[in-house]
Design goal:
This protein is α/β, with parallel strands linked by helices. About 35% of the residues lie in helices and about 15% in strands.
């Protein structure tokens, strides 16, 4: 049996290459490959960097779908289904919008696909494919990752590894809480270490892709001494509360952690309250947390969002001032996005403030556009404010100034300028990017 795995792009703009910073290896593909029996002939195509051979013989196609890639995923599914090839879709978006995904796929997997992947393949063998599979929480001890399908593909030179899943915090805008029901689970330490051992000679830096590496600090403190003996460099994302645990930060640094992504989101207390992120200001707030991280020698990737009710024209400049004053390694300044299945989406829908009922499918919607009507500012003012914030933060004087406090680790300092220049170059490329391939001439084929 031949099965084709596809990772869809966000979209394609005519005459332009895909944005480089969006080209990390797709870990869900490697996870599915690791769970596939050896007698299944797997092929993999990454829509971000290669053409998809739609006429190549295959018995089925499987596509992991996120909200930003949904329109392109449905285009790809339509091409295969017109050729009589069954398409299975899974991931966050089909879980949050199952009825929509069922319109464009022969089958969908909701929840965690690892729990039902063998059942899906067995049904394909016997021509008994069901319309819907519900993957309950996977046993993380049974996860096996196979990256052999990535050979020859030009991904960013970062190894993606999962050490745990989920997050317990109830942030209004985050779909993680819906998908994982505000829970956190850790993978077995030995499995993570074995995976790293196989990759350590091939990768100089690892990204632990956990939604919140500090989702279980107690488990993290048990894992980090084992990781310290591996002598690898890694970065991750975590909630700011962990930055107030100096013992934990010290263990992070000794284990090879060189940087963390933290969602600061806003400097305004009322905005944080509306987000359900008041924990961001605990124990001395941002300044104390960042001072702790700096003492530990851990760089910071800060993220900020704009569009909440208390934002005004000064909010963008204040966020840039703060990120520059703290000499953040890199930072993101993005508009608020209401993802389906989140409390934010439900609230804005109830208030009649959505500009598009399904912005991820609307041909008129473009990346960096605000898909709802904000209260404090116009939607175009927020889009332009985010772009101006990025231009200022990634201006030459800002890059040079911030470099002075980002030299504690030679490896991170050596990569500081290339990474900042890459983000500088992406500022204009991302603006107005289409969702879906704007050169595609077909029509979305719905299941009859």
């Amino acid at each position: 049996m031949r099965v084709t795995l596809i990772h869809p792009a966000i979209g394609h703009r005519a005459g332009e290459s895909y944005i480089r910073t969006w080209q990390m290896e797709p870990l869900p593909i490697a996870t599915l490959a690791g769970l596939t029996p050896p007698d299944v002939n797997l092929r993999f195509y990454d829509d971000r960097m290669e053409d998809i051979p739609f006429d190549e013989q295959t018995d089925a196609v499987a596509i992991p779908v996120e909200t930003y890639t949904a329109r392109r995923a449905y285009q790809i599914a339509s091409e295969y289904r017109r050729r009589g090839v069954p398409v299975i879709m899974g991931g966050f978006h089909p879980t949050l919008m199952p009825e929509e995904a069922l319109r464009y796929g022969d089958a969908i997997v909701t929840g965690e696909a690892e729990a039902v992947w063998h059942e899906v393949l067995d049904d394909l063998r016997h021509n008994t494919l069901q319309r819907r599979y519900n993957g309950e929480r996977s046993d993380l001890a049974k996860i096996r990752v196979d990256r052999s399908l990535f050979r020859g593909k030009r991904y960013l030179p970062i190894g993606l590894v999962e050490t745990g899943r989920g997050c317990r915090f109830p942030c209004e805008f985050c779909a993680i809480q819906t998908f994982f029901d505000r829970s956190y689970r850790s993978r077995p330490v030995s499995d993570v270490l074995n995976e790293l051992e196989l990759l350590r000679d091939k990768k100089k830096l690892f990204f632990f892709v956990d939604d919140n590496f500090a989702g279980d600090i107690k488990a993290g403190k048990a894992f980090l001494p084992e990781l310290e003996r591996m002598k690898v460099r890694w970065i991750t994302q975590m909630s700011i509360n962990a930055a107030h645990d100096e013992a934990f930060l010290s263990m992070l640094a000794r284990s090879g952690c060189r940087g963390v992504l933290i969602g600061f989101e806003s400097l305004d207390a009322e905005n944080l309250k509306q987000m359900n992120k008041r924990f961001n200001t605990m124990k001395g707030g941002y300044a104390a947390a960042l001072a702790n991280l700096r003492r530990a020698g851990i760089s910071v990737y800060g993220t900020f969002v704009f569009g909440y009710d208390n934002d005004n024209e000064q909010s963008f400049g204040q966020a840039v001032d703060f990120a520059q004053a703290e000499d953040m390694y890199i930072a993101a300044f993005n508009h608020l996005t209401p993802f389906p299945g989140t409390p934010l989406y439900a609230r804005l829908q109830k208030e009649g403030r959505l500009r598009y009922e399904a912005w991820w499918l609307d041909p008129a919607y473009r990346y960096n556009e605000l898909p709802f009507m904000p209260r404090g500012l116009g939607h175009e003012a927020i889009t332009q404010g985010c772009i101006a914030a990025r231009r200022r933060f990634y201006g030459w004087s800002s890059i040079l100034k911030r470099s002075a406090r980002n030299y504690s680790d030679f490896f991170m300092f050596r990569n500081y300028f290339p990474i900042n220049m890459m983000h500088r170059g992406d500022i204009s490329l991302r603006n107005g990017y289409p969702l879906g391939d704007e050169t595609w001439q077909g029509t979305l084929l719905e299941v009859s």
